[in-house]
Design goal:
Helices cover 46% and strands 11% of the residues. Helix 2 (66-78) packs across helix 4 (114-127). The protein has a five-stranded antiparallel beta sheet. Strands 3-5-4 form a three-stranded antiparallel beta sheet. It folds into two domains: 4-61 and 197-299, DD-peptidase/beta-lactamase superfamily (Beta-lactamase, 3-Layer(aba) Sandwich); 64-193, Beta-lactamase (3-Layer(aba) Sandwich). The chain has twelve helices and eight strands. It is α+β, with helices and mostly antiparallel strands and 304 residues long. It binds glutamine. The site of glutamine has 11 residues, from loops.
């Protein structure tokens, strides 16, 4: 009989004992001071039973993981017109690269690289009266947790050094694929990235992607077709130029953030979140990737 708790405990011990923990992202100054030794893993199975090990209730900066949530909200608001603004192909490039954007006339390869998320942010800024407050409300309602909030010091910190994101937004604007002004769109984008959540809050939120669009309160947030599309984009694009490696080693749709978090889902089975702030050279959590590889290997559970 499969025992998730034993597997998570073993993963947590292994992670705590691993010396080579990767590098903390320092290009956002506020992230540089996080303790590298933090490690948490939380898994919510399809029945809503939570398993956890390590630092799972401590909040961290969710960063690019939020791109899945802004995509969900924008997709729900705009429907298939969304795909006129952003494509669904893996980029094979790092998250902040600009070269394809120039070659492909300002239409980002997918919504999970920075350029694509900036277009999604633009859509939300156009569609919503009070974008930051309404997006926060959206996340809180899926998580059923009104304590989730933005860490504005992280947003300000990124604004002061976000030169590549300003470059991307300006390039997109020059091709006519940004409706609002660059500063307004990036103010929203930096705030979405600065959402603070714990592993437990993240599994509660991403449970909808493992549970056919329904949250733990049984409310339908996205329909089956939307869930299929978003999980497919996570599988093919969630780890930038390491998406193939993640599919190869872990075998689940997922998304990482430079705060060291990774979410992964096995539709109709479970949702799992890891947090370990040290990153590998591709900007994905080094120990998080190892932990998830061990989880799917030891449990024999992956979509493949
Ligand atoms: N806010 C970060 C950035 O734009 C998000 C990147 C990430 O988490 N991969 O650079």
């Amino acid at each position: 009989m499969l025992n998730f708790q034993n597997i998570l405990d073993a993963i947590s011990v292994q992670a705590k004992n691993t010396q080579e923990k990767g590098k903390i992202a320092s290009y956002i100054p506020q992230l540089a001071c996080i303790d590298k030794n933090k490690f948490g893993i939380a898994l919510l199975d399809k029945n809503g039973t939570l398993f956890r090990a390590g630092d799972t209730s401590e909040q961290f900066s969710v960063q690019s993981i939020t791109k899945v949530l802004t995509l969900s909200m924008a997709f729900d608001l705009l429907g298939d017109d969304l795909w006129k603004r952003v494509d669904v192909e893996p980029s094979g490039d790092p998250f902040n690269h600009l070269s394809l954007l120039e070659q492909e006339n300002g239409k980002p390869r997918n919504p999970l690289i920075n350029a694509g998320a900036i277009v999604i942010a633009d859509i939300l800024v156009s569609k919503l009266k009070n974008p930051k407050a309404e997006f926060l409300e959206y996340v809180r309602s899926i998580a059923n947790d009104s304590s989730i909030t933005y860490d504005t010091s992280v947003a300000e910190s990124e604004k002061s050094t976000g030169f590549r994101n300003f470059a991307a937004a300006n390039l997109i604007k020059s091709f006519g694929n940004l409706e609002n002004d660059v500063d307004t769109v990036l103010d929203f984008y930096f705030h979405q990235c600065a959402l603070s959540m714990s592993c437990e809050q993240l599994v509660n939120t991403f449970y909808i992607f493992a549970n056919r669009g329904k949250c733990l309160q049984n409310n339908q947030h996205l329909n089956l077709s939307q869930i299929k599309r978003i999980n497919a984009i996570m599988l093919s694009c969630g780890f930038y130029d390491e998406a193939g490696e993640f599919a190869f080693r872990v075998g689940l749709p997922g998304k990482s953030g430079v705060g060291g978090g990774i979410v992964a889902v096995f539709p109709d089975n479970f949702c799992v979140v890891t947090w370990s702030p040290g990153l590998n050279e591709k900007g994905n959590s080094k120990l998080g990737l190892q932990a998830l590889e061990k989880l799917t290997t030891d449990s024999g559970l992956s979509i493949f």
